[in-house]
Amino acid sequence: MKKAKKIVLIVLAALLVLTVGALAFAGNYLFRFALDPQFGGMISSYEEEDLVLEGKYAWFAESNEDRWLISHDGLRLHGLYLPQEQESHKYAVICHGYGSIPQYEGGFAAKFYEMGYSILAPAARAHEQSEGRYVSMGWLERRDIVAWVDTLAEQDPQAEVVLFGVSMGGATVMMTAGEADLSPNVKCVIEDCGYSSVWDEFAVQLNEMFGLPTFPVLDAASLVTRLRAGYSFQEASAVEQLKHTSLPVLFIHGEEDTFVPYSMLDVVYQACASPEKERLSIPGAEHGGSAGTDPELYWSTVEAFLAKHMG
């Protein structure tokens, strides 16, 4: 009898070790697949020689000047700055998406520039020339954007700033909006197809790409991310941050978006505590495609929103 119990305990211990080992492997694999540019999964390391830009993208890349910032945790971060030729106190901070670079925001930069805004387009951590080992999905960037805005306020105390971002950039500006020490020079926020939280977004992709449930795989990947990158998927939440903002926010989302599901628009809009919030749905638009699908509706809504809140 004792021998049988011993065998059962050994088998259970072996199964536990195997299970823990499998979860550790799966969590680490998903972490690297999604957040490590050197792994070559969903995101790759930036190679300047591979950069091919045309039209407004080339214009923005060639017309700007470099800006650098040392983050609160010692990373050297890069940004592109394009001042207005005439004196202007209006600034647009434009945040790019996952796996992208500031130069690829040339189309948005051109529109804001035409409206009289100087442009600051920071590169997220582990993107383009910004330092950082792992992608932080906008969560650590929220502190970087606070610091970037402070540089604008130091340069121009009369600065009026709009935060604008698409996809991961949209999540970044939503997360930034809830920071208590965000400069009062920020007057409003415009987010386009940002996710409600990193957990929610990765849950969607885990199912779409691998057909896996969130438990226990996503829990394991979140724990690995906490240990290796300094944040968890659960805490990286635009929803929780929006509960603490009074800034006017314009939420934009394409109705055919499945990458960051259209349903997330309702989630972030309802979470926002600001009494001055607006939403815009673009029929037929897929992820990140709202401005291209219906540019007239998109930009007329953006311009009307800015006219209300930017000086």
Structure in words:
This protein has 311 residues and is α/β, with parallel strands linked by helices. The protein is built from eleven helices and eight strands. It has an eight-stranded mixed beta sheet, with helices on both faces. Helix 9 (264-271) links the parallel strand 7 and strand 8 (277-282). Helix 1 (2-35) packs across helix 7 and helix 2 (55-63) packs across helix 3 (106-114). The longest helix has 34 residues, at 2-35. The chain is globular. 43% of the residues are buried. The model is unreliable at 8-20 (pLDDT under 50).
The helix/strand series, from N terminus to C terminus, equals: HHEEEHEHEHEHHHEHEHH
Approximate strand percentage: 15-25%
Largest sheet: 8 strands, mixed
Widest sheet: strand ordering: 1-2-4-3-5-6-7-8
Helical content band: 40-55%
Tell me how many strands there are.
Answer: 8
DSSP summary: helix tally: 11
Oligomer: single chain
**Rg, Cα atoms, Å:** 21 Å
Low-pLDDT residue intervals, each spanning 5 or more residues: 8-20
Q: Indicate the mean pLDDT.
A: 91
Class by SSE composition: alpha/beta
Overall body shape: globular
Gap between N and C termini, in Å? Answer: 83 Å
